[in-house]
Specification:
single chain, 686 residues, alpha+beta, Calcium-transporting ATPase, cytoplasmic transduction domain A, Rossmann fold, 4 domains
Length: 686
């Protein structure tokens, strides 16, 4: 085995668990059925109905009302409260089950002198954990062997890979720094490499765990429907009190004045008989109470509860999990929606689009290329990749760009049983070098394509590879002088502004040097364009949101030019007045200035997690009903602060806990469906 760690013994693991706790996160405590039931009795209309019920019961005892009137009001209260509570409790149970399934991650841990598979919650401080490409880092800790490239987007919002290398086991993190070269954090994903980490922090003591604790802070802001019901209760009370007073006064005026023909002597006699006066006064009071009770719409709470709960189940069938009934109506009241780009407006998967050769000839499909150039490209892609090809032809492991390059090859080409090529040296990709290389050796296949059995494949940024590119491979597989470097660079810049990421692929006869410099005399095989594909449903969904009067603001970590190109393509930018701001430009404006700019804001590029919370706060301060989408731990604060938070089903557990509605298919069109349902429901209620 490559790594040989004995790890903790079972007894040491138990002792560590006793001293430092296990690696389970304290789930945000969901409300019990009875807690939800009690909360639903605080509805202002329900309170008025309960008061009316008490009055009717009293009148029934005194013989001034029928008993079945009290039964009718009581049934309306019970049905309304229990339907609401049951629906919310059932969906909350579904949500908790979803969270539990998502948290069942298996980890490779060194225990008792061997490597074993353990659930993430069983890891303790002091464990040695093997991390490989595609793994989610299960705790905070130090890399003690190997090297990794990790994606910390769920923690920082930045999708750039961060390199992590080995250090000593007694290494102490000087401060909470996500760019620390030796420390890894729970929630990160290993994009590339293999290493062993020594667990330093577990459970709630991890940075991820600390963020989850912040979700206990709740917002006291009422939903639009709650505000309307509260105002309705005030109007009903006012109408009832005024009406009751007028009826009581009218009744007494009739008894005192009209029945006595406005005769002062008769009126005086009326007041002298105190028993008659007291009887009439009691009748006036009973009439007033009846008016108050009659003013209460007994069926309204029951109707609202039934309409909301029925639509709650319908929305679940359309991949929208509503955690609270009023979340549906709040979604229908949205007029400002902040949406992530990656995975929501787009698929979240890089897809290959085309390949350019050294003559700027473009092929949109692998099979459109000349057969010999196809074979050379296939060997160069598979020979310089950390991906593993499954028996079904899928690419696993490696980083997201490598998997996209492999996708350019048809499945049959990925599975071809060619001569085995052996890698003898590597240069891993990093953001400083902006290229990777693999030195390989073989026999028949390399000799057939490159007239040698020892060669180096290179891939990376176009501007980097072109520095040492002297030739290109033509359609027949021959080396030709590369004369169009400047044209290639100009084309690359233009395509990058259109949202396309470009990766150059080349081959060099030079072996990898000790200083890991870029090999010389590179022959360019081609430049492959890859992009995050826009969801087919996004175009119509964005148009539908605009027609519904919802201002959609895309928030992305992309550079401004790329974000602008995507915004135009999906119809987000449709006027010269529309604004596209970077995070830096956003922070150059005060809150008051942003309030003025907000109606025209459409895109925030190079966004930071703090930008989302600030934008939510400013939108709510302007009286807007604000929605926010998110999937990472870094999004949880903004999701919690928004009037309605849309968490992505594939997102982190912390984000889903913070959200009011979980979009199970991560699709923007599902969000517009939720808005449409909410508006339909509100019209039905009104």
């Amino acid at each position: 085995m490559k790594y040989n760690y004995r790890g903790l013994t079972s007894e040491q693991a138990e002792e560590s668990r006793r001293l430092h706790g296990d690696n389970n996160l304290a789930m945000v405590q969901g409300e019990s059925f009875w807690t939800k039931l009690k909360a639903n009795f605080k509805n202002p209309i329900i309170i008025i109905l309960c008061v009316a019920l008490a009055i009717i019961l009293l009148l029934s005892v005194l013989g001034y009302s029928e008993w079945y009137e009290a039964v009718a009001i009581g049934m309306a209260v019970v049905l309304a409260v229990f339907v609401s509570t049951f629906s919310e409790h059932k969906n909350e149970s579904s949500f908790q089950k979803l969270q539990e399934e998502a948290s069942q991650i298996i980890c490779n841990v060194f225990r008792d002198g061997k490597i074993t598979e353990l659930l993430i919650g069983e890891i303790v401080k002091g464990d040695y954990v093997l991390l490989q490409s595609g793994d989610k880092v299960p705790a905070d800790g130090v890399v003690v062997s190997g090297e990794l490239k990790v994606n910390q987007a769920s923690l920082t919002g930045e999708s750039e890979e961060v390199p992590k290398t080995a250090t000593s086991e007694d290494y102490q993190l000087p401060r909470q720094d996500f760019n620390d070269p030796h420390y890894v954090f729970r929630g990160s994903v290993v994009d590339d490499g293999e290493a062993v980490m020594l667990v330093d922090m577990v459970g709630q003591h991890t940075f991820y765990g600390q963020l989850s604790l912040e979700l206990s802070i709740s917002s006291d802001r009422l939903s639009p429907l709650q505000l309307k019901l509260k105002n309705l209760a005030k109007l009903i009370s006012l109408f009832g009190y005024v009406g009751a007073a007028l009826i009581a006064l009218s009744f007494m005026a009739n008894q005192i004045l009209i029945d006595n023909h406005f005769d002062s002597q008769l009126i005086s006699q009326y007041f002298s008989d105190w028993q008659v006066f007291l009887h009439d006064l009691l009748n006036a009071l009973i009439l007033a109470i009846i008016i108050v009770v009659a003013a209460v719409p007994e069926g309204l709470p029951m109707m609202i509860a039934i309409v909301l709960s029925l639509n709650m189940r319908k929305m679940l069938r359309e991949k929208v999990l509503v955690r609270k009934l009023l979340g549906i109506e709040t979604a229908g009241s949205l007029d400002l929606l902040y949406s992530d780009k990656t995975g929501t407006l787009t698929t979240g998967h890089l897809e290959p689009r085309f390949i350019l050769n050294g003559e700027l000839d473009r092929c949109d499909d692998y099979n459109d290329m000349h057969e010999r150039l196809r074979d050379i490209l296939r060997v160069a892609i598979l020979g310089n990749s950390y991906c593993v090809i499954t028996p079904e032809g899928d690419a696993v492991g490696g980083n997201i760009s490598e998997r996209a390059l492999v996708k350019f090859l048809p499945r049959a080409e990925r599975l071809r049983d060619d001569e085995k090529i052996t890698a003898v040296n590597h240069i891993r990709f990093d953001s400083a070098r902006k290229f990777s290389a693999t030195e390989v050796e073989g026999n028949h296949e390399l000799q057939r394509y490159f007239n040698t059995n020892h060669i180096t494949f290179v891939k990376g940024a176009v501007e980097i590879l072109l520095q040492n590119a002297t030739h290109y491979i033509d359609q027949q597989g021959n080396r030709q002088p590369l004369k169009k470097k400047q044209e290639l660079l100009a084309t690359s810049d233009k395509l990058a502004e259109e949202g396309v990421r470009l990766i150059a692929i080349g081959v060099s006869p030079e072996a990898i040097a000790e200083d890991k410099r870029l090999p010389a005399d590179i022959a360019l095989i081609g430049v492959i364009g890859i992009s995050d594909e826009i969801r087919v449903e996004t175009y119509d969904a964005v148009a539908e949101a605009h027609q519904a009067g919802v201002q959609v603001v895309m928030i992305t970590g992309d550079r401004k030019g790329t974000a602008l190109a995507i915004g135009r393509e999906i119809g987000l930018i449709d006027s010269p007045d529309n604004l596209v701001l970077t995070s830096e430009e956003l922070n150059n404006h005060s809150d008051e200035e942003l309030k003025e700019l907000l109606p025209n804001l459409r895109i925030v590029a190079r966004a930071l997690p703090t930008d989302k919370s600030r934008l939510v706060r400013i939108g709510k301060g302007e009286g807007r009903v604000v929605g926010m989408t998110g999937d990472g731990v870094n999004d949880s604060a903004a999701l919690k602060q928004a009037d309605v938070g849309f968490a992505m089903g594939s997102g982190s557990e912390v984000a889903k806990e913070a959200g009011d509605i979980v979009i199970l298919d991560d699709n923007f069109s599902s969000i517009t469906n939720a808005i449409r349902y909410g508006r339909t429901i509100f019209k039905s209620i009104r």
